[in-house]
Structures are given as structure tokens and as C-alpha cells.
Amino acid sequence: MIQASRILVLAPHTDDGELGCGGSIARLRAEGREVFYAAFCLCSKSLPAHLPPDTLAHECRKATAVLGIPDENLILFNYEVRELPASRQQVLEELLQLNKKIQPDMVLLPAASDVHQDHQVIHQEGLRAFKNTTFAGYELPWNNYSFRTNFFMKLSAADLARKMAALKEYRSQATRNYMQDEFIRSLATVRGLQCNSDYAEAFEIYKLIS
Q1: How much is the average pLDDT of 73-84?
Q2: Does domain 6-207 have CATH number 3.40.50.10320?
Q3: Is this prediction's pTM over 0.90?
């Protein structure tokens, strides 16, 4: 179904893309698709005081490399966490420039139901900036009060293993409950059961162009 050859993943914060669609990124890269990843907040204020402020930038580089994304396809901005609503217009301009530069034929971004304020901005401005592109929203269950599972990406065991290995690179976030292997595997198993696969990731399709 997915004919896209150039996919752009929009992550409000470092690790959102890996959590929401890391297995799909691994699969797309294994299939030879070109994948770009743009993260908007490096979340230095959310780090323990003893860690350098660029910790998550380094962890994101390592994690996306595990998934097969070339370093030149990783774009890191440095907006303040939880303050994207105040920079909405500037974020839109950044997205418009990404559209012009990358010209993706598919964009993966936070789901419409995501309640985090930063995620809402990336979703809403992403729809504006890439309005002639196929869109799918990825799943972050702790932020989604409702989620329409109308598109599934089947994952192999290797795809899931690569996702889990990528998330291990976020050592500063290792204690968070949604980073645990048991949760990642369980969710992939549930989504796989819904589409007759061992594992899968679920998405909401907002616009499909083929």
C-alpha cells in the first residue's frame, strides 16, 4: 500500500518518533526507502541536573542511526519543551522549509488526539505545511485518549528488535515506564494481532495520496 519513497518523521521531542513509529522506520529503511527525521525540542530542562544539556541530541543521533537513518537526514531544532504553542508561527515556517527542501511523499506525525501541547502544535502545523502529502498519525498511548487504528504497518521480529535497541540509546530516559521492553513488545503484539501479524504499529491516516 505504501508507495512513498521519501518519508519524513516529525517528532515534537527527541524519542517521540522512535516510540511512535520506530519499527516502521526500521522496516522502511530495510526496504530501501529514504527516511528523514526532524525533532523540535531537545528537552534539556527535563534532564537530571547532572547531565549536559545536549544529552538528548546525542542520544537521538545514536537512536536514529540504529534505525538506519543517515546522520545527514536528521534535523534537530532546539525549541523549549512545552513551549511550542508560543512559537507556532515559527514552527510552521520551519516545516514549510522542510517541505521545500525534502519534498516528502509521506509524513508521520503525532496523532490528532494527542493531548500534549507540543505534540498538538506539530500535528496541526504539520497538516498545514504538508497539505499535498500523505499523512499518518503515530500512536503514543499515554497521550492518546482516542485513537483510530485504520492503518497498520506489519513488523518483523528484526524491525521490533531494532526499535527496542534504538530506544535503549536514550539512557537518560531509561526509567520512564513507556521505555520498558515489556511495554514496547506488548503494544506491538496487540497491534500485530489486529492485522494478522506477529507485530505491528498502528496509525491514523488523515490523507492518502497514491
Answers
A1: 95
A2: yes
A3: yes
